[in-house]
Amino acid sequence: MSSTLEVEGLTKHFAAGGARLFAGRSKVHAVDDVSFTLRPGTITALVGESGSGKSTVARILARLYEPTAGTVVFEGLDATRWARRKAILRYRSQVQMIFQDPFGSLNPVKTIAHHLERPLRIHRVVPRDRVDERVHELLETVGLVPAKAIAPKYPHELSGGQRQRVAIARALAVEPRVILADEPTSMLDVSIRIGILNLMLKLKEDRDLAFLYVTHDLASARYVADEMLVMYAGQIVERGPTEEVLQNPLHPYTRLLLSAVPDPRAGLRFEALSVRRSHSAVDPVAGCRFVARCPLAIGVCSDRTPELVEARPAQAARCHVTAPAPELLHA
Amino acid sequence: MTDVLDRPMRDAPAVQTETLVELRQLVVDYAVPGRHVRAVDHVDLAIHSGEIVGLAGESGCGKTTTGNAILQILREPAQVTSGQILFQGRDLVGLNREQLRRFRWRNVSMVFQSAMNALNPVMRVGDQFVDMMQAHERISKRRALAQAGELLEMVGIDRARTRSYPHELSGGMRQRVIIAMALALEPELVIMDEPTTALDVVVQREILQQIDALKREFGFAVLFITHDLSLLLEFADRVAIMYAGEIVESAPAAELYRAPKHPYTIGLMGSFPPLTGPIRRMTGIPGSPPDLSDPPTGCRFHLRCPHCLGDDSALTALQVGVRPVLKPAAREHLVACHLVEHTP
């Protein structure tokens, strides 16, 4: 069976906060018709600004949220539908998540060894008498050496980077095929971050894992990711090979994101960015969600929602201007 | 996109004007029974009028403590043990409460880390401006509200928002409100401690642009504290790098970008993957910052330094045994490193 994770038409609506009585139910389209594939030995970056829905996607894949619509197919089964406990347990062991906050994701009163033993026992990964040995192997895999010295420690005795490595070791304990990493480096010191990124690259190569790397840091996405998905207001607005997307972006939003990354050579003399904002993920109407901020907008952008169109080989964007649908061109 | 990335270097900072703030051999200790942490260790730093000085370093290096010391808002167990904090030539250490109350916000204001949450959630934005202004000057509520509206417009927020509650504003807007408040009394210096860290890059850029434009208009100086060196190299006039309580290098931003000298600075720069050009495997900096209650002897960076070979050379003896001090390595460029000092 293929260890590919196929996401198709994923949609998640939340009831909008502050709803007034009789005002009707507003809905935030946090994730809207998102499709992509996570392949073994591939790191897929999911980038976008805060509130774009990128973390929600990761959480749906981790079964922390139930989607409003869409499917997540793994090993031939739809992970959003089935309910047999055994199947859920199987999925959970195959698809593991790493969270942003290495300070909040470890239990402060338990040792590092305890954190790694638990998944080994619950999922019966190794016989009971081999648990200790495997704990040490896991610590070594993530670069926490000497493992014997680290295992009996408590989380507060480790640095942020070391804690994040423990979280990764815990995710690896159950021998997953897919890892969902939600901003795994954003709370770490800059000198430590590259180490975590290198660890992801090593695990991808050595274990043929599929990664979903959720981040707002384009440079780190470029460093590790093979594929890139750019999300805006709940939709994927561009996807393609990382280098293509970053060097030749199709969507105006991708271009905006790129121009906002600090660059010592540029100074602060960049083109004036539009500060207009549209909370377009709440009860969106027809039309492109980026239209209010878009420098390229034309008439059709306000009337018609663009589809994801492959304008270059393997590179697609939702944009009437840079990636027009063939039938619109001839209309 | 290439046009954004191929621009020439930022011009060298304008001719230096008068010194606004000067830290002289500043030492701040956190003293709790059984544990003594020297968070700021003999720091010298000058901020000139109208200039943006960046203070960069990793968490726990003392950069926030330095900012808090300038505003004299250190709380127990932190205290200034020795050294001077001169503001326009006058030492702030030892001023009494009333003197400090007048000085704060009028002369130096601060935008705190996660300032987005610094607004009072049950007060309208305008009323918070009124509160702050009336604490510092005689001003009617009506005039204060009118000024609040003007300040908000300056940072790109509709003046009608004075009637909003903080939760009705986005994170970026709340951060702008805080910046407007920090500018309200036209201080000479605004200390900004990670003001944009919690925001995404597009909003961060908009806010930095605004700070830059306001600075040109009003001429205040900025001490910009952050862990994001790439941002500082673009935004600041001058950058000081802090490591384990000490400033290890300081130089004009363009010079630091072109020719960093301290191995820690070079390591920090090597920790940001590039957005263009070839992708190399990077290593970051091995190890982690030291525990300041028991700092390493000699150069505090020597345990992580690729140039400290640990052999029996004279250089190793210096690195392990003698603390390097800041010395000029080029024009306006100071470095505290034995290797730089002893390499011709």
What layout of secondary structure does this protein have?
The complex is a heterodimer of chains A (331) and B (344).
Chain A: E1 5-15, E2 27-38, E3 42-47, H1 54-61, E4 69-74, E5 77-78, H2 85-94, E6 95-98, H3 112-122, H4 131-141, H5 147-150, H6 160-173, E7 178-182, H7 190-207, E8 210-215, H8 218-224, E9 227-232, E10 235-241, H9 242-247, H10 252-260, H11 299-303, E11 309-312, E12 315-317, H12 326-329
Parallel strand pairs in A: 3-8, 3-9, 6-7, 7-8
Antiparallel strand pairs in A: 1-2, 1-4, 4-5, 9-10, 10-12, 11-12
Chain B: H1 2-5, E1 19-32, E2 35-48, E3 52-56, H2 63-70, E4 78-87, E5 90-91, H3 97-103, E6 108-111, H4 125-136, H5 141-154, H6 171-183, E7 189-193, H7 201-218, E8 221-226, H8 229-235, E9 238-243, E10 246-252, H9 253-258, H10 263-269, H11 314-321, E11 327-330, E12 333-335, H12 338-342
Helix pairs in contact in B: 4-5, 5-6, 6-7
Protein described:
Chain A has helices at residues 54-61, 85-94, 112-122, 131-141, 147-150, 160-173, 190-207, 218-224, 242-247, 252-260, 299-303, 326-329; strands spanning 5-15, 27-38, 42-47, 69-74, 77-78, 95-98, 178-182, 210-215, 227-232, 235-241, 309-312, 315-317. By secondary structure, chain A is α/β, with parallel strands linked by helices. An eight-stranded mixed sheet of chain A has the order 6-7-8-3-9-10-12-11, sandwiched between helices. Chain A has a four-stranded antiparallel sheet with strand order 2-1-4-5, with helices on one face. Chain A is globular. The termini of chain A are far apart. The model of chain A is unreliable at 268-279 (pLDDT under 50). An eight-stranded mixed sheet of chain B has the order 6-7-8-3-9-10-12-11, with helices on both faces. In chain B, helix 5 crosses helix 6 (171-183). The longest helix of chain B has 18 residues, at 201-218. Chain B contains twelve helices and twelve strands. Helices cover 32% and strands 23% of the residues of chain B. The model of chain B is unreliable at 1-15 (pLDDT under 50). Chain B has 344 residues and is of the alpha/beta class.
